[in-house]
Amino acid sequence: MNYWLMKSEPDVFSIDDLKKKGVSGWDGVRNYQARNYMRQMKIGDLVFFYHSNAKPPAIVGIMTVVREAYPDPTQFDPKSDYFDSRSPTDNPRWSQVDVRYQETFARALSLDDLRGMPILSKMVLLHRGRLSVQPVMVGEWEAIVIAGRTGR
Fold first, then answer.
1. Residue of 4, 84, 86, 150 with fewest CB within 10 Å of its CB?
2. Closest CA to 77 of 67, 64, 87
3. Which regions in the chain score pLDDT beneath 70?
4. What are the phi and psi torsion angles at 93 (to 5°)?
5. Can you give the pLDDT at residue 130?
6. For 88-98, what is each residue's pLDDT tens digit?
7. CATH code at 8?
8. CA-based R_g, the chain, Å
9. What is the pLDDT of residue 152?
10. Under a CB-based contact definition with an 8 Å cutoff, are residues 84 and 43 in contact?
11. Which phi and psi angles does 48 have, rounded to 5°?
């Protein structure tokens, strides 16, 4: 099993939206490195849900990958904000995965909270902050889950 972090702006799609839907496609990723990470995801992988562009930005809960990467249909929809006229239908440029809501943390963990945890000093989030999909190391995962569930 692998661990990941995926970002969404809460006014676009929040953890509460995912909780209501239960399962959702994670569409609209338009960064090649983030896309490549999604293409590595396997069913059962666990993912932190990160509210970006929020006050404060924070890890707010956990979701599970329930469908591996497949073509993101928004790239072919001219009405979509994520339309990509250069993406060939026979070899789509962009992918998405499906995720299932798992839990909301007792306490959202802000960037300041995360920076204050020495075990996270090498976490991708703290060094490549703009990347919308990124890997999380096992020790980082464990520390964040404990902090999010217990509020400490």
1. 86
2. 87
3. 152
4. -80, -35
5. 83
6. 999 999 999 99
7. 3.10.590.10
8. 15
9. 64
10. no
11. -75, 140
* Amino acid occupying residue 137: M
- Identify the domain containing residue 67 by its residue range: 3-150
Residue with tokens 């972090």: 5
Gap between the Cα atoms of 19 and 152, Å rounded: 24
Instruction: Provide φ and ψ at 58, rounded to 5°.
Output: -160, 155
Print the SS3 string covering the chain: CCEEEEEECCCCCCHHHHHHHCEEECCCCCCHHHHHHHHHCCCCCEEEEEECCCCCCEEEEEEEEEEEEEECHHHHCCCCCCCCCCCCCCCCCCEEEEEEEEEEEEEEEEHHHHHCCHHHCCCHHHHCCCCCEEEECHHHHHHHHHHHHHCC
CA distance 96 to 11: 20
Q: How far is CA 90 from CA 39, 41, 74, 76, 81, in A?
A: 17, 22, 15, 11, 21
Give the chain's domain count: 1
Would you call the peptide bond into 92 cis, given omega within 30 degrees of 0 as the criterion?
no
pLDDT of residue 62: 98
Say if pTM beats, i.e. exceeds, 0.85: yes
Length of the chain: 152
